[in-house]
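It would be a great kindness if you could assist me with a short task in structural biology. I am sending you one protein, given as its amino acid sequence and as whole-number tokens for its backbone shapes. I would ask you to consider whether the tokens describe a fold that such a sequence might reasonably adopt. The full record is reproduced below for your convenience.
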Amino acid sequence: MVRAGMRAGNAFWNCNYLSLAVKAGMKGGLPEMILFTGGAYQNKLNTALKTAHLEGAQVTEASGCCFEDLEKADVINHFHLYIRDCIENGISVEHLAGKLFDKNPNVCIVCDEMGSGIVPVDKTDRLVREAVGRVCCDLAMLAGEVYRVVCGIAVRIKQE
């Protein structure tokens, strides 16, 4: 069975059905997950806080934190570093987007886009690059809004 937005045969990387079912019922003006992505050093965090009207919100730095910290966060910054930590410690990120959406459906996530440029020589770096891309695809599917930030300017690429 193919899940929304995924290719047949790619059973390893999918959001779970519970998240998709919950997402389907979240219409009607309720707050939803927002994803901001873009290259490194593009002023994504400040742009996200301004665009999502979250000035003054508590920002959780993802590097070195545990999943319970992400469950309580208003804004998660450097989410790609959390994924890197998971990969380096042998923790699966297969259902990370769905689990996070189930626990914190209103979070704003800021994550570097890592798929452009030269493919890394180091195997771990390649695994992290792929994992970040796949998790971000799942997050984008679940998010109500997705923005790509370039030079501090947010370009909306999805709005439900």
The chain has a mean pLDDT of 86. The beta strands are 34-38, 59-61, 75-77, 108-112, 145-150, 153-159. The longest helix spans residues 123-142.
